[in-house]
């Protein structure tokens, strides 16, 4: 790994790198660091027994040699005043002997020797000899694909590799804050961490950096996108594996609860905890996690809450905030006259101390493409207005800059609530124009390809995977935040958007928005609009998910639910000529139809569906599937299948009750062996209640036969064992520093 890109680090990081390298070479001589601008130009100093040595760092990787010489001429008088025994000059450029002689002449040969001029080649060599420093400054080499592939686990493919590419894109602006060390401490102690925080505080960025550190330690990356079962399927007992589930409740926490995702996640967390060679990082917005807790009792369990680590900007050290701002400014394409607005009167202090400081907002404000419409003299006013009203950062673009068609395309992607492939997006775009009777002969009409071109990098991001599949998503979550906040102003057009979309994700989002943002009238209008524009091209999977979404929505009237459910026909049933895979959602819909006595599918077809579902044996089904199949069997009065499912439920519980109770954590308050009888009785009630959901009748003898496989003492011992070692302090943050001199040091200009 002997090729480094020094342009990927800023000048302050370059200084740290040089001093770290020199400290490694001189471990017995501590380097004293001085603030630039207040110390006569010294970046660092270390002492020998009687010799004073000054270190000066000049990155100048993007500057000309003449600019370097001019800077050194400015430094020379300071060196003379300090009169060191030895002067070390680190320069991130390659120098010929002639140029070294010119530099020595400027500084003075009594201070500077040729061997003490450290060039880019010298720094490269020093880094290659020190693997810990090489790893610490990973920005230098992370962009090298060949190097990265050598570091990564061989099993990293597909979406995980794309995620690594995302980390690479974000790494340049990343600043290591105190959050990283604290989060890793929790992760090392328990194997699991849930990173929470408000939008834009850096949850995903923190997760990315944790991920990178473990990948470098040889962990295989497993990226979970939609369901925690993706992780369950690939667990390898002997492999070091790192699981990352970003936004694990999604923007659709109600959908996660409906699919029993909450209990699945808790069981997965507990499984990872028991594996020394596994790590799990989950992220969620604080508000969504709190909503999940309010909806699902399982999120209140003690051990899960102890995994939480909240990223809070109000507790972030002001020095960290300054480093983040400086890094964004260093890497921005902002012209100097815009940058001067921030340095003028040390306005950067007002930014880093503002109550609404937010890394995502900083990224937006320092993106030159976002402020091209502003003259330099208006830039500072734009910054202050955006800090005072951060929810409006997209307002000018959406109301003044975006063509109408680009606005609609962005809204479609946002309401899809996640990545959408190009083919589906184009179809949705054309659907929307048709549904709204848009006249394509208008001068304002923009064809899809041109609309995409205008959207990418302004409101949307475009990605191409290794197979060539093109997908789109909002540029960052704040785009969707803005559009969601404005949804009340767009309720008339919302039904047309959802009717134009044909993805499962959009239906998930419809459910979520229905619960929090859409009125009952708009929800019903949306249902009617979807029904009016439903296409034969819509897949069976879409039809099933649509019905599921509508029949479970309390804002939809019963007549509309029935009208939507009528989309389901016998030809959609699995095990027909076109379908051969069991579908639990289909079973839930059929049970709803049977309960509501609204059958337009022949009952014999449903009986045939039930029979085919269990034809290959009932031992392949999980608890939820067994439960809903049992409900169907009872409603259809199929005694044989009811008995078969009842026996399987008894067998299922007999085999899994110990692990199920251990993983549920509903019984983790038992620590005394004398309470084993009470625990046994409580578990008996618990199992009986769960079994009752199947509508099957279980006698006490059958329940007790299940409990023959239950050991309450084992649960109590496990509670005692897992309760210890969990008292790491999550509130050990410093109160924050108001050392504005240190902020000035970061923003010091030569």
What's the CATH topology label of the largest domain?
Answer: Rossmann fold
- How many E strands? 13
- CATH A-level architecture of the largest domain: 3-Layer(aba) Sandwich
The biggest sheet amounts to: 5 strands, mixed
Tell me the fraction of residues in β-strands, as a range: 5-15%
Describe, in short, the structure shown.
This protein is an alpha/beta fold and 750 residues long. It is 53% helix and 8% strand.
Topology:
Layout: H1 11-25, E1 31-33, E2 44-47, E3 52-58, H2 65-82, E4 86-91, H3 97-107, E5 117-118, H4 120-128, H5 131-136, H6 145-151, H7 158-171, H8 178-190, E6 192-197, H9 203-215, E7 220-224, H10 229-232, E8 241-245, H11 253-258, H12 261-273, E9 278-285, H13 286-295, H14 302-305, E10 308-311, H15 318-331, H16 336-343, H17 348-352, H18 359-365, H19 376-388, H20 395-401, H21 404-416, E11 420-421, H22 422-435, H23 448-455, E12 460-464, E13 470-474, H24 477-485, H25 494-500, H26 504-516, H27 520-532, H28 540-551, H29 558-565, H30 584-595, H31 603-614, H32 623-635, H33 639-664, H34 676-692, H35 700-707, H36 712-723, H37 740-746
Parallel strand pairs: 3-4, 4-5, 6-9, 6-10, 7-8, 8-9
Antiparallel strand pairs: 1-2, 2-3, 11-13, 12-13
Structure report:
The protein is α/β, with parallel strands linked by helices. The protein has 5 domains: 6-134, 3-Layer(aba) Sandwich (Trna Endonuclease, Chain: A, domain 1), CATH 3.40.1350; 145-315, Rossmann fold (3-Layer(aba) Sandwich), CATH 3.40.50; 318-393, no CATH class; 394-533, no CATH class; 617-750. It is built from 37 helices and 13 strands. The strands form 3 sheets. Strands 1-2-3-4-5 form a 5-stranded mixed beta sheet. The protein has a 5-stranded parallel beta sheet with strand order 7-8-9-6-10. The protein has a 3-stranded antiparallel beta sheet with strand order 11-13-12. Strand 4, helix 3 and strand 5 (117-118) form a beta-alpha-beta unit. Helix 28 (540-551) runs antiparallel to helix 29.
